[in-house]
Amino acid sequence: DTAVSQTPKYLVTQMGNDKSIKCEQNLGHDTMYWYKQDSKKFLKIMFSYNNKELIINETVPNRFSPKSPDKAHLNLHINSLELGDSAVYFCASSQRQLYGYTFGSGTRLTVV
Amino acid sequence: GDSVTQMEGPVTLSEEAFLTINCTYTATGYPSLFWYVQYPGEGLQLLLKATKADDKGSNKGFEATYRKETTSFHLEKGSVQVSDSAVYFCALSDHTDKLIFGTGTRLQVFP
């Protein structure tokens, strides 16, 4: 069973479109995250939720809106996509940061 | 703010060579330290961790020791294999419960 699953794995879309990426974890973790990995492999946190409550909201354009319907799901909606949004987006979860995160396999977003 | 600095890659080695990937950190408190590995086309996997000074994390032949005096967490392996080729990320978790990553170091191991 996949611990943290993201869909879709690949997403190619045109500028200006709106798209969503879904994430689900079956580990019973309380906290979920979205990270963005750019073309140089640099990873930066975007958001974190703890039990459906937004905890961390880094400097991210407000075109990005996370939604957590329950503590097992954290979706990412992106409005008016731009070329610079092209990246790999990783979802992750943790029970306590002391023990590290479990990452999903990533969603490669390409905006053309 | 807190940060992690890793050596630039790629690191290119022959099979069975000794590996060291340097990692130093800057943190105001006492962070937990991690090494993650990303194989091509995959997500990140936790390789090892250490939660306090002088702790040694180890897994799959890799080791790293939390050195508070030098603010370092260098990754080592005595004999690398081709299958170890991947990108390695050093990270720390601060009091805000977020992971802060280094820029990653690509390791290439040739037969």
N→C terminal distance of chain A: 34 Å
Shape, per Cα inertia axes of chain B: globular
Computed over alpha carbons, the radius of gyration of chain B is 13 Å
Strand content of chain B: over 45%
Terminal CA distance of chain B reads 41 Å
Fraction in beta strands of chain A: over 45%
Structure description:
The complex is a heterodimer of chains A (112) and B (111). Chain A is built from no helices and eleven strands. With 112 residues, chain A is an all-beta fold. In chain A, strands 2, 4, 5, 6, 9, 10 and 11 form a seven-stranded mixed β-sheet that branches. The mean pLDDT of chain A is 91. By secondary structure, chain B is mostly beta strands. Chain B is built from no helices and twelve strands. In chain B, the strands form three sheets. In chain B, strands 2, 5, 6, 10, 11 and 12 form a six-stranded mixed β-sheet that branches. The N and C termini of chain B lie far apart (41 Å). Classes of the chains: A mainly beta (112), B mainly beta (111). The interface between A and B is medium-sized, with 26 and 23 residues.
What topology emerges from the helices and strands here?
The complex is a heterodimer of chains A (112) and B (111).
Chain A: E1 4-7, E2 10-13, E3 19-25, E4 31-37, E5 43-50, E6 53-57, E7 64-70, E8 73-78, E9 87-94, E10 102-103, E11 107-111
Parallel strand pairs in A: 2-11
Antiparallel strand pairs in A: 1-3, 3-8, 4-5, 4-9, 5-6, 7-8, 9-10, 9-11
Chain B: E1 3-6, E2 11-14, E3 19-21, E4 23-26, E5 32-38, E6 44-50, E7 56-59, E8 62-65, E9 75-77, E10 86-93, E11 99-101, E12 105-110
Parallel strand pairs in B: 2-12
Antiparallel strand pairs in B: 1-4, 3-9, 5-6, 5-10, 7-8, 8-9, 10-11, 10-12
